[in-house]
Amino acid sequence: MKVLITGMSGTGKSTIVVELAGAGYVALDLDEDGFSKWMPCDGNPTGANPGYDWVWNEERLDDRLRQNSDIPVFLAGCAPNMGRYVQQFDRVVLLTAPVEVLLNRVRSRSGNDYGKTTEEADRIVANKNEVEPLLRRIATHEVDASKPLADVVNAIVDATV
Question: pTM of the prediction?
């Protein structure tokens, strides 16, 4: 069972990966260096790096998806090239939360500076309005990520049943 956990910045994807891995699952954050990389593009889609977008490293992801596992594998992230991979997942879990929650989380998190500038925060709001509806169309499950972390993790695990 391969599960994609996706959603906007601030929904808790990285935190959930840590929780799932701690519970003994295979859980990987596709937004980390190595699984994602900056690629040239037009514009500034993330608000962080004009002329570049943060996309999944297809060679590395292809290798990971070819591996079999006896337990569910959870991969978390959101990238412009994710459409190429959606059919390879048994479940797609969309994490959602009100924009105020997203912005508060990215402002207060440590270890990831994305979302702290005005331009990046504006992109998060725009993505919430423009990208999240597209993700909703491909999702097999939707989870309110503003709920307590344990409830969110349990809902994701329940999606594998």
Answer: 0.91
